[in-house]
Amino acid sequence: MAWAPAFALLLALPSSPARAQRTTLSIPATTLDQALLMLSRQTGVEIISTEAGLSRVRTVAVSGVPDLATALSRLLAGTGYKAERASHGYRIVRARIAPAPAPSRPKQRPKPAPAPATEPAESDEIVVEANKQRVPLLRYPGSLTMLRGSEIPAPSGNSLSDIAASTPILQSTLLGPGRNKVFIRGVADSSFNGSTQSPTSVYFDDVQLNYSGPDAGLRLYDMRSVEVLEGPQGTLYGSGAIGGVIRLTSNPASVTDTSASMIGGATATDHSEPGFDLAGIVNMPVIRDRLGLRAVAYRVRDGGYIDDAKRGLHNTNRIDTVGGRLALRLDPGNGWRVEASGAIQSIDMRDGQYSDVAGKPLVRYSRLAQPFHSALWLGRVVASKDWDSGLRLIIANGIVAQHSVEQFDASPRGSGPTTQYRADRNKLLVSHETRLSRSLGNGNSWVAGFTLVSDRDILSRALEISATDRSLIGVTNVSRAASLFGEASFAVFDDISLTLGARATMGRNDGEPSSTPRGGSFTKGRSTHRVDPTLAFSWRLAPTLALFGRFQTSYRTGGLAVAAGTGRVADYLSDVIQVGEIGIRKLRAGPTGLAFSLDLSTAHWSNIQADLITQRGQPYTANIGDARIRAIEANFDWVPVSGLHAGGSIFFTANRVIGPIANASKRDNRRLPETPPLAAVASLSYSAPTRRFAPRFGVTANYVGRSVLGTGDFLDISQGRYWVIGASAGARIGRIELSLDVDNLLNAAANRFAFGNPFTLVVRDQATPLRPRSARLGMTVNW
Asked: Where is this region: Disordered (predicted)?
């Protein structure tokens, strides 16, 4: 194999001693989280912390210090934190200081300046949270993409589909918010939404947000970080995480600080309808040091840009999104914390965003409107307990309800009765997880727990022909699962860690038609018993360089779905994926320098579940066969001088499907959908390091290669193969930040990864165009 020489070269690199240090240490004045990160990388000694608020503490510059202990002492002096010695490192904890006697005259406590809403409340670079063990990033044995609050692509309030456009590791369909499917590293099953479990699991904090169907389209206001665990995560996250896990971590309520932010913007699009966005964020301590409240509210309008020539309408595909979140945090003391939060969001899309008129990329010809509506409700309660020994208990409970209605114009072209297709879906997901974990400074860590999941998915369908309603067969799936899981990392040597884990799952899926079928049969009651293992290693070759490898499996449950033909249902089986990967990761040792990662992976996906459509546009679900996926991904992050930042990512993949549909098609048409063989992103930005007036400038370039709508000749519809250039500028003046972001600067026209109307897809004249050149002028005010 061509990759073998590269592996041999990496294995031949020498390892540095675990305690290797520089002659003198030098840390610039920065925040405490960043200072500890730099110190850890310069010395090669692990420094971990789970304390909140490190990013809000400013430190003095430390230079010319000969040893680690002296540097730690100077950095932590007067911060309220202290360093505790671990086996091969340090843990940063809050110092317990006896209260001082009350002064004769009370003094008013100075009010701290609030941090901007997009800044993280704690450092995610010191430890990786998404793997549930809080290990240092350099020791994490797998591919990971992490975006901190300030790194989430502007403007604030983007959705996962917008983030997918900024990193080639993620792919997304673009039917519209609340209808898009997000894929990780080429593990894509279908462009269509149906009954199958999602190949990507999305979590909001510690609560599962989705089970089946598309991404909910939650707007990412006030987010601390977005973490993408690449590859199957069956051991820690269970069924559905066959492509990976995306964890959305929100900013928690603070029990000490009062702050507020207002975010607003206006968007202008070439020859299209304008849009706007408005959001407010408030945090206040209800009982100082004990109870805090945080609230977020927003409204977003994405202006339409598709005209309908048949009905004489312009800019038909306007999208309105309204939502909000409310969070309470209680710190009763003794290491306990209780968080309760809720979210609600509504999406209304007036019409489809596709075109079908030759030579006019933004014009469609249809007889009926094709609106979409979705509503999301989320509730979560999480209790946690931290011990000084590093032991942590998490008890997380969540409930997510979703309702969506979509309509398509199923009228025959030309003459004939007007026909409208309607699909109504209701979903209810209830989840519970209890886990206990511990992370030590010497690289040893472990986590163990159990989960309970229940999901109900009800699909109802109807055809309305000239005002006469005709019900079609729909399905109801009820999935329940109970799991025990455990994973542990052991420092076999000072620089080498081995990770072992497994998850045992007992599940059951029951399905039934939503109305009496006309014919055929269905299977009711399918039980699943599985064990999903993990085997991984991490080898620290130098203080900031590590080699890692991983093998892991995952699966998706089967169920009942609409079958090919009108009025029929059929059973589909579970699918399984196995992935092996090897990679190398380098971190920066200070505020400037180069960080990079390289990863090679191979996957075998058997019995693939896919939501498909017939040539008449009717949906159905089937197991389409097996696939082999090979991928190479590379990322770099370079800061040559303070304020100047260059970054880039590139993703290569090759896949081949073997099954009934693929085998009956041309050899070039036996591919997974939505997976371009090449995708890349490059960016260059500059931010002035001054405090009072801080201008910034940036430019990005995204390339998306050619993909297809689906496997086989019928869905071999070309998509992608385009460049998109973006530019941004802004300035922070005190508490006010102004910004100008331009997307699709060159006004490129291309077909994105989506379809428009399944009932006219057979004509093969549909395209889902890029949004024309758009410019957003925004302002953020922090108090």
From this structure: 97-124, 506-527
User: In the numeric block, which tokens belong to residue 118?
Assistant: 């997009």
What is the pTM for the complete model shown? 0.83
Token pair 């706007």 in the structure block, residue: 276
Q: Give 492's contacts (C-beta < 8 A, 6+ positions apart).
A: 498
Q: How confident is the model at residue 349 (pLDDT cuts 50, 70, 90)?
A: very high
Tell me what the mean pLDDT of segment 84-100 comes to: 62
| Calpha distance 674→188 (Å, rounded) | 7
Q: Do domains 137-246 and 247-782 have the same CATH topology?
A: no
CA 87 → CA 48, 121, 442, distances in Å?
A: 12, 28, 5
Quote the CA–CA distance of 365 and 414 in Å, as a whole number: 11
Is residue 203 a contact partner of residue 248, using CB atoms and an 8 Å limit?
A: yes
678-687/619-623 β-pairing: unpaired
End-to-end CA, the chain? 58
- pLDDT per position as a tens digit, 222-274: 988 888 999 999 999 988 889 999 999 998 898 888 999 999 999 999 989 99
The Cα–Cα gap between 151 and 53 comes to 19
**What's the one-letter identity of residue 666?**
K
CA distances (Å), origin 706, targets 80, 372, 677, 753: 54, 28, 7, 10
Note the residue count of the chain.
783
CA atoms within 13 A on the CB side of 39: 34
Residue 178 main-chain phi, psi, to 5 deg:
80, -5
Residue located via tokens 């430019």: 699
Annotate 623-675 with DSSP letters as a single string: E--EEEEEEEEEEEEEESSTTEEEEEEEEEEEEEEESHHHHTS-GGG---TT-
Q: Give DSSP secondary structure letters for 314-344.
A: SS---EEEEEEEEEEEEEEETTEEEEEEEEE
Fold of 137-246: Ferric Hydroxamate Uptake Protein; Chain A, domain 1 (2.170.130)
Please state the domain extents for the chain: 137-246, 247-782
For residues 628 and 602, the answer to whether their CB atoms sit within 8 Å is yes
Which of 555, 557, 550 has the alpha carbon at shortest distance from 585? Answer: 550
Structural element, H or E, at residue 175: none
Residue 360 to residue 49: CA distance in whole angstroms: 57
498-555 pLDDT, tens digit each: 999 999 999 888 877 766 544 454 556 677 889 999 999 999 998 889 999 999 999 9
Nearest alpha-carbon partner for 61 in 39, 44, 83: 39
Adjacent-strand bridge partners of 548? 538, 583
Is the pLDDT assigned to residue 683 strictly greater than 80?
yes
161-186: pLDDT as tens digits: 888 888 899 998 888 899 999 999 99
The amino acid sitting at 292 is G
- Please determine, for residue 486, whether its predicted confidence score (pLDDT) is greater than 90: yes
H/E element, 43: helix 32-43
Residue 155: asked if its preceding bond is cis (omega within 30°), the reply is yes
Report helix, strand or coil for 388.
coil
Beta bridge partners, 231, equal none
User: CA torsion 328→201→482→342, rounded to 10°?
Assistant: 20
Closest CA to 391 of 457, 345, 327, 448: 448
Cα–Cα distance for residue pair 475/513, rounded to 1 Å? 4
Q: How far apart are CA 496 and CA 135, in angstroms?
A: 14
Band (pLDDT 50/70/90 cuts) for residue 7 is very low
What's the pLDDT tens digit per position in 411-427? Answer: 887 777 888 999 999 99
What does CATH list as the number for 247-782?
A: 2.40.170.20
Tens digits of per-residue pLDDT, 180-236?
999 999 999 988 888 888 999 999 998 999 988 888 999 999 988 888 999 999 999
Tell me how far apart the alpha carbons of residues 258 and 224 are, in angstroms, rounded to a whole number.
Answer: 17
Mean pLDDT score, 129-143:
81
Give yes or no for a contact between 93 and 388, defined as CB atoms under 8 angstroms apart: yes
